[in-house]
Amino acid sequence: xxxxxxxxxxxxxxxLGVEVSNTPFRDCGSVNASVEHVHVNPCHTSxxxxxxxxxxxxxxxxxxxxxxxxxxxxxxxxxxxxxxxxFPLKEPNICKSIDQGCPLxxxxxxxxxxxxxNISEDYPSLNFHVTWKLLNNLNATFLCVQxxxxxxxxx
Length: 155
Ligand SMILES: *[C@@H]1O[C@H](CO)[C@@H](O)[C@H](O)[C@H]1NC(C)=O
Ligand SMILES: *[C@@H]1O[C@H](CO)[C@@H](O)[C@H](O)[C@H]1NC(C)=O
Ligand SMILES: *[C@@H]1O[C@H](CO)[C@@H](O)[C@H](O)[C@H]1NC(C)=O
Ligand SMILES: *[C@@H]1O[C@H](CO)[C@@H](O)[C@H](O)[C@H]1NC(C)=O
Ligand SMILES: *[C@@H]1O[C@H](CO)[C@@H](O)[C@H](O)[C@H]1NC(C)=O
Fold this sequence. Notes:
- By secondary structure, the protein is mainly beta.
- It has one helix at 7-16; strands at residues 26-27, 33-41, 48-51, 55-64, 71-80, 83-86, 111-118, 126-136, 141-152.
- Strands 1, 3, 5, 6, 8 and 9 form a six-stranded mixed beta sheet that branches.
- It is globular and about 45 Å long.
- The protein binds 2-acetamido-2-deoxy-beta-D-glucopyranose (NAG) (5 copies).
- It comes from Hemigrapsus sanguineus.
- This is MD2 domain protein hepatopancreas type.
């Protein structure tokens, strides 16, 4: 199921004058963790459009259900027409991208995984899905989230 949580972020955006909207996402097999919110920036359209030659960022907010997850690497894939295309990460170590750092030892906290990249001009303009998998130190996926996105030129 896609999650649409539009009203509160729209109100928040109006009040704060910034983009903090929640992006619809699909859980694709999280184990011992649950995704609370996903924020993509920029996100002026549905699905969110990322502008070629510009920065784009994603924040994945999640909880862990067991206090003993030892994170390993993150894997990102673009899914275009059912084909998975790996997107190599300069820094795959999950712990370096989590605000609170590691270990993920609290089932009470909401952890925030943040990633930013400059979108290459070389990509075609298209709609696709991006899949983020967070692996533990034994390479088992503990969090998987899929987000619909578009690549376009900045209007
Ligand atoms: C992204 O990369 C393009 C091409 O290299 C560059 O012109 C642009 O300034 C970069 N944008 C940011 C926000 O770093
Ligand atoms: C989690 O780990 C941090 C850093 O090692 C530590 O300061 C904190 O007390 C730990 N929390 C729990 C609930 O074990
Ligand atoms: C754009 O993203 C890069 C990471 O790819 C980052 O180093 C840089 O600070 C960002 N620039 C802006 C203006 O946010
Ligand atoms: C996890 O995967 C990486 C990359 O494929 C590999 O180098 C590493 O040895 C694997 N670790 C385990 C514990 O299987
Ligand atoms: C999930 O938690 C159980 C119980 O703590 C553990 O045995 C299992 O390895 C964990 N799986 C992952 C992918 O973290």
